[in-house]
Design a protein that fits this description.
Length: 751
């Protein structure tokens, strides 16, 4: 039992060690750090004096090490088939040596280089998960005794655990070295030729080839990858004639496709020569030397063709000189071609900026305005000389200091900011704009300046303002955004609000036509203000009635609460308005409000010449029925059970009836909202609600006697509670004429 426990503990310790290796190397970035960490771990774990990791360089077939533990750190390189390390790398088998100097495979030169004396050696291959050997690790001079097979297994496990990190770091390092060499080579090319403009460079190359080989003419053909054509716009002795032909035709095409040089002493005797060019130019070709232009990746990017060497045909030495020269200029040619592409892109970007409807203003790293496109000049009302070169803080600080503040904020935090619907003062007046401020940063993170993008929304805002007078602002937003699909037919969940003025006909008779219109305009203004504040959509005015919806065209998580808050605010606003009207002898206005939540159909309805965005369905009808029912219950706000159950807030509400509205067969539970009441308008409100609810319970079960007592108690606390009076009348009627089957549901005979 003890041996088994010890074995389990040992395996657990080994697993923890290997996991620890993975964790430690995973957080390291460089190959040097990983090598140093692994050497330290293996030396400590195996109780040795020194460890060395050799990785294989596939380019040179050498094993190299840059980390050796001890007082001296040196860089060591040797062929990957030399010494013990080379043997292990080639065979892929571990080696355990108790006496290093007695083993003929031991490479003493390493000890001689480092001054270290090796006694015992344990060397194992470093294998990847695909069993590829990428190097070896050598552990030297065990402190106590000799290395064992258990040490070998432990070392193999440790190296396998770290192989992925080693391989990845080595690959990354090789990529960095390659990149560094490329940059050095670019510097050399830059010293050879400083010309970056493609046509000027081609002219210089042709002139140099002609002079160097003592020829009559030279032509450099570059490959156009898009059209697969060889082209040249410059040639000695030609008047800048552009030549283009498929990149597989003629001698130039043969050299380009084969990447092999061609030296032809007699052009017209070679079937590959196309004399049509001579006919076009009037030139007589005798001898031709044509070599490929190959970039550093070995890809042929063009060909150099030199014609008519003076004094005889081109020699092998001429060919070598031309190859060497084209090899040196290949990078310059690519850079010139790239510069040409960049210049074309710059011209394209400038043209694009000039065609943009939004203004674009850029500032340099010192805060001076560097560019301003045509739209920017138009929006700001300036000429180029009035804005270019002027410090942004000075220009915008005159009338638009808020712009300067946003520029400073973006420069400080380094991230873009967007300011919506802001006022920008311009010579022709204030403009409504959306302003985007963003930093300009180079690829290496260097700050270049900042940029403003100014979108003038003045006309859109005026259009929206005009449209919002005739339709809901939310619908106007959708139309202006071009989202016609949102205005199409959809089934959506929404809370519908209906309100209607009570006794409107007597009011119109008293006020007359003009007074009636003035009253309605003032009333609608007050009511719609609360509606839009909660994000509701005004569907329509129906005479003196208001129909609105919450949840379309944009839904919210709390549409029921938004509708509830709107209804309560409308009643409170009406109470305050009536108080003001009473001071001038105006007649009071009374309204009823119905709310219902259900799935309704929304969309544009009408003819092609006149459309109306509206909602329809049973859910809308029930809200209308509830508004009408306010008269029967002497209530001002009635809501359906669907709306009640969707509320997230807490309100003073009481369940007043289960009814079947006209035109329906299924009963609907109705709730009265009492939040707009004060202690003066509804004394002992919560006590009355409690006794009323008790009476409703007895009423549902058909216990008319107990129900009557509860409603009488409620009335004793608030004698003007019309709903309690209504239920006393019902109880008296039902007691005198008990129904055969009673389910507590009342059937409405009116809408």
């Amino acid at each position: 039992m003890t041996k088994k426990s010890d074995s389990t503990a040992e395996r657990l310790r080994t697993a923890q060690l290997l996991l620890g290796i993975t964790d430690r190397v995973a957080g390291l970035d460089s190959l040097d750090e990983i090598l140093e960490t692994l050497v330290s771990l293996t030396t400590e774990q195996l109780g040795a004096q020194r460890s060395t990791i050799f990785l294989n360089d596939e380019r040179t077939n050498e094993l190299y090490s840059r980390i050796a533990q001890g007082n001296i750190t040196r860089r060591i390189r040797m062929l990957n088939n030399v010494g013990i390390a080379g043997h292990v790398f080639q065979t892929g088998e571990a080696v355990l040596i108790d006496d290093a100097y007695s083993d003929e495979r031991f490479h003493r030169a390493v000890d001689q280089q480092t001054g270290f004396t090796t006694t015992s050696v344990l060397c194992v291959p470093i294998r990847t998960v695909r069993d590829k050997v990428i190097g070896v690790i050598q552990v030297l001079n065990k402190s106590e005794g000799n290395f064992t097979s258990e040490d070998t297994r432990m070392l193999e496990a440790m190296t396998r655990q770290a192989a992925v990190a080693l391989q990845g770091a080595a690959t990354i390092e090789r990529m960095r070295e390659s990149r560094s060499q490329e940059m050095e080579f670019l510097d050399v090319v830059a010293d050879i030729t400083s010309e970056i403009e493609i046509k000027s460079l081609l002219l210089k190359v042709m002139a140099e080839c002609t002079r160097m080989l003592d020829a009559e003419r030279s032509t450099l053909f570059m490959n156009d990858q898009k059209t697969r054509e060889l082209w040249s716009s410059v040639g000695e002795g030609l008047d800048a004639t552009e030549i283009r032909f498929p990149n597989h035709l003629g001698i130039a095409g043969t050299v380009f496709t084969s990447s092999q040089s061609v030296n032809i002493p007699y052009a017209y005797a070679d079937v590959r020569f196309n004399p049509s060019f001579d006919k076009q130019t009037g030139f007589f070709t005798r001898s031709i030397l044509c070599t490929p232009v190959v970039n550093k990746h070995g890809k042929t990017i063009g060909v150099t063709q030199v014609l008519n060497k003076r004094g005889g045909p081109f020699t092998a030495e001429d060919e070598s000189r031309l190859k060497a020269f084209t090899a040196q200029i290949s990078i310059a040619l690519e850079n010139a071609a790239l510069f040409n592409d960049v210049q074309n892109m710059k011209n394209y970007n400038e043209s694009m900026l000039e065609s943009m409807s939004s203004g674009v203003v850029t500032m340099d790293d010192e805060g001076n305005i560097a560019t301003c496109n045509a739209s920017g000049q138009k929006i700001l009302g300036v000429e180029p000389e009035e804005i270019l070169g002027v410090p942004a803080a000075e220009y915008f600080g005159r009338c638009n200091g808020w712009v300067t503040e946003w520029i400073e904020k973006v420069e400080a935090q380094g991230t873009a900011e967007v300011v919506m619907d802001a006022e920008l003062e311009c010579p022709d007046g204030a403009h409504s704009v959306n302003l985007t401020v963003m930093p300009l940063v180079s690829g290496d993170g260097k700050k270049l300046g900042s940029m403003l993008m100014i979108e003038d929304i003045s006309s859109e805002k005026r259009m929206k303002s005009t449209m919002s007078r005739y339709m809901d602002p939310g619908v106007a937003d959708q139309l202006l955004s071009g989202s016609e699909d949102i205005l199409g037919g959809r089934s959506v969940k929404a809370t519908i609000l209906f309100s209607d003025v009570r006794g409107f006909t007597p009011l119109t008779e008293t006020l007359g036509p003009q007074g009636t219109v003035a009253l309605l305009n003032e009333y609608f203004t007050l009511m719609v203000e609360h509606l839009t504040r909660e994000g509701g959509m005004l569907d329509k005015f129906i005479g003196d009635a208001i129909m609105a919806a919450f949840g379309i065209p944009v839904p919210h998580e709390d549409d029921e609460d938004r509708a509830m808050r709107t209804a309560i605010a409308m009643i409170r606003e009406l109470q305050a308005w009536n108080a003001e009207r009473a001071k001038t002898g105006g007649l009071p206005v009374d309204i009823g409000i119905g709310l219902n939540t259900d799935t309704v159909v929304s969309g544009n309805v009408g003819s092609p010449k006149r459309m109306d965005y509206t909602v329809m369905g049973d859910g809308v009808n029930l809200a209308s029925r509830l508004e009408s029912a306010c008269k029967q219950y002497s209530a001002q706000i009635l809501i359906s059970e669907n709306t009640f159950r969707g509320l997230k807030g807490t309100y003073r509400v009481r369940d007043i009836d289960d009814v079947v509205v006209k035109g329906k067969t299924e009963p609907a539970r109705v709730y009265e909202v009492l939040d707009y009441h004060t202690e003066a308008s509804f004394p002992h409100l919560m006590e009355v609600v409690g006794y009323f609810g008790e009476g409703r319970g007895h009423y549902r079960t058909g216990d008319w006697h107990k129900a009557t007592k509860s409603f009488e108690t409620a009335l004793s606390l608030h004698p003007d509670d019309a709903v309690s009076k209504l239920y006393l009348e019902r109880c008296e009627y039902l007691r005198s004429a008990p129904p055969e089957e009673w389910d507590g549901v009342w059937v409405m005979k009116e809408k």
